[in-house]
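Ticket 4471: requesting a sanity check on a complex prediction with NGO. Repro inputs:
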Amino acid sequence: MRTHHRSLPRPAAALLGSLLLVAAGAGALGAVPAAASPTASAPAAATPLGQIVPAPAKATAGGSAYRITAATRIRVEDGSREARRIGDYLAGVLRPSTGYKLPVTDAEGRDGIRLELHRKDGELGAEGYRLTSDGRSVTVVAREAAGLFHGVQTLRQQLPAKVEADSRQAGPWLVAGGTIEDTPRYAWRGAHLDVSRHFFTVGQVKRYIDELALYKVNKLHLHLSDDQGWRLAIDSWPRLATYGGSTQVGGGAGGYYTKAQYKEIVRYAASRYLEVVPEIDMPSHTNAALASYAELNCDGVAPPLYTGTEVGFSSLCVNKDITYKFVDDVVREVAALTPGRYLHIGGDEAHSTSHEDYVAFMNKVQPIVAKYGKTVVGWHQLTEATPAKGALAQYWGTEGTGAAEKARVAEAAKNGTGLIISPADRTYLDMKYTKDTPLGLSWAGYVEVRRSYDWDPGTYLPGAPSEAVKGVEAPLWSETLSTSAHLDYMAFPRLPGVAELGWSPAATHDWDTYKVRLAAQAPRWDALGIGYYKSPQVPWPAG
Ligand code: NGO
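Returned structure tokens:
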């Protein structure tokens, strides 16, 4: 059993030493200003406005703090179903720790927590929001429901960390006064999870989704197939899941999602405003499929199932017609289950496929994705072929990647291929933090917290136009990871940093202020039972 993972919330008293809570604790001892009291003491007792992760585009502090009390109501005035759902979600976060009823109502009123959709507020865009807090109310306004949801995450982080606890805690529950106006820098703020090397249950994936939502991540890229396991039921090729999904790295039992389970993941992600991007990796990383169906192999012989961690040895048979029937069937079924716009076809590390065969394969598969109404995403090796119109390439090189390879990706970007930036030596959450990290890999080097945050996706790839950059993504590969505690320990505290690179304006980028905001998140992770790496680079609160 690993000792660094703390699965139980720390007692509230132990939290009082933390940066976030010293002030709130002091408020509990003295006279807490009433909701409409003068500004002097109230703001001091609350988390300063905008001291959250990701940093908001703009925060203007001032005026009275808002205080949640037993009388507070959550108002969703426009009566929309989505606003109501988000109100219920917020109530679900606040009720256990505050102990208040917090009814969600569409009755009009100027007090309370107000969630409003202003469909004509163009400035807020598809995901932006405005949060205004004063003595009478805290109001979140957005044009779209996604923006309202992100605004609710901001509200959560403005409250003391113990609001995350699942048992009743002492208040006061203050939100500093002022206004936050916030829209994301990038439309693609992704997290990737490898459920193939080790299988993760629907419940484990939901837990990760909830962690992502707190940091305004909006894409969940699921790596559903690889040499070690095929993880999604495909009706037309049933052995993929029943046989190809029957093991994992190290030889454990593996597993797969039924179609109903996959849909449940998609639904849950959507309820947190994340779009699922399914990946079926090809032509390599396909041993599980090749083992399940002999006819997919060039020599007609099925290899055994594989439970090691080598890469690049398998390949679909590029010259057989049945390969494309297989791809067509799989893409059709995956597309039908996926409301999102994208389908990731992998394309990485095809070391046992010749260049000519690789190009022919990728150029034949991309139109199949289009035929089923989806937009292609591929790892950046896709640019060795001809990326389809509108396709996105996910760059996963490192500082050591050769200039020619970088230039090829940049050239594709100039010609219209969008980029998702995932440098392995910056954003790979499976890289060890240091040589002493008990989990993870180190092929791209060690990635300490500062290294994962302190770079700019907009200018990362020399020669790529900044408009081509659609966003960032943090992959979490699972060769060495098999439990939620493992995922948490590798994702925290690096994931919030990559999320911030995706959301916050470049002008807010600053390690010295970031590390203080990041440190202030720790009591929240404690309250949520998220065990994290206590990097010496971050000024964690004592306690
Ligand atoms: C590489 C490789 C994966 C590994 C991962 C481990 C890509 C795109 N292909 O990233 O198969 O799991 O590294 O860090």
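Notes from triage: The domain at 58-182 is CATH 3.30.379.10 (Chitobiase; domain 2). Leaving this open until the requester confirms.
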